[in-house]
Amino acid sequence: MRFQSSQIAFGRNETFGLRYAWIPKGYEFYRNDPAIFLDESATVKLGLGKNMVQSMRYWMQAYGIIDYERGISSFANLLLDREKGLDPFLQDINTLWLLHWNLCTNPSNATLYYWFFNHFRVTNFSKSLITRSLNEWLNENATKKVSEKTLDRDISLLLRTYSVQDLSQTKNIEEEIENPFGELKLIDKGLESNYKSEYKSREGLNPFLLAYCLSEWIQPETEMDLLKENTKEASFPISEIMNSDDKKISMTGIFRLDENAFFSLLEDVISLYPDFFNISEAAGSKMLTFKGGELPKFKFLEDYYR
């Protein structure tokens, strides 16, 4: 979840964004045959062109469905199992929010998305501003160079993926219809190649999902304390959870939430799960306390979907 300067990834998507059917299809095919994406007949079996197969393979890892060293993730099995999964066909908007969360907290496989949603805090922008800002950040934080051509293609794809599109103006209607993430309405395309990404309340986001994300946020922060010192509580300034530094994640950035919307969701989390979360104040700062050791993050998702 933390950014490491030597681990960046650009240009692996073959210029294709994720399609609605790819995650359920990729999950099922990989579960039955872990070598599917390397199979010479994968194009026939998956019904995709060669470059699309490689794009699917990449996105399955970027969205936290498959780790090609460890196999299918517990998250993927919980959501996508055809018989027992919570949402195997991505019908609930919260599943899209969860996939978005996975992508934006995966800096080693989805560096651009991690940077844009955690560290690029400009509301009104152009593609050229994204490019300049990203180059500055990479020059300061990454040990590898990325070609301008690769950055340009990846940024164009990010904007297409998250922008609310006018289908009458798009060149590839099929691609836009098959793109799931425009539904999140995180980026609005304006006139003359200008874009807007506002911080506000977000449709579909609920406290169960936030509880899950908070559980993921806390684990790398307190793992050593919980294991070595056997502590049962850990407290952090809420401002630290909301806003990132150069190598952490930002809850409000990823979901483009304003402060009021975030606190409203957080209060609902505490009402639902007082045994696990609490707000206090120390030295004039509001603190979020995580209680009870390791949090049952998958229980929070099960409580919502079931």
How many distinct beta strands? 9
Average pLDDT, all residues: 89
Output the radius of gyration.
Answer: 20 Å
Portion in strands: 5-15%
Count of helical regions: 14
Assign the structural class, choosing from mainly alpha, mainly beta, alpha/beta, alpha+beta, or little secondary structure.
alpha+beta
Shape: globular
| Major sheet: arrangement of strands | 3-6-5-4
**Largest β-sheet summary:** 4 strands, mixed
How many distinct domains?
A: 2
List SSEs in N-to-C order. HHHEEHHHEHHEHEEHEHHHEEH
Low-confidence parts lasting 5 or more residues at pLDDT below 50? none
Percentage of helical residues? Answer: 40-55%
- Through-space gap between termini: 28 Å
Structure commentary:
The longest helix has 23 residues, at 207-229. Helix 9 (173-178) links the parallel strand 4 and strand 5. It is built from 14 helices and nine strands. It folds into two domains: 22-196, no CATH class; 207-305. The strands form three sheets. It has a four-stranded mixed β-sheet with strand order 3-6-5-4. A three-stranded antiparallel β-sheet has the order 7-9-8. It has a two-stranded antiparallel sheet with strand order 1-2. Helices cover 49% and strands 11% of the residues. The protein is globular, with a radius of gyration of 20 Å. The protein has helices at 22-32, 42-46, 50-62, 74-80, 93-104, 111-119, 127-141, 148-162, 173-178, 207-229, 238-242, 251-255, 259-272, 297-305; strands at residues 66-67, 71-72, 124-126, 163-164, 187-189, 194-196, 233-237, 277-282, 285-291.
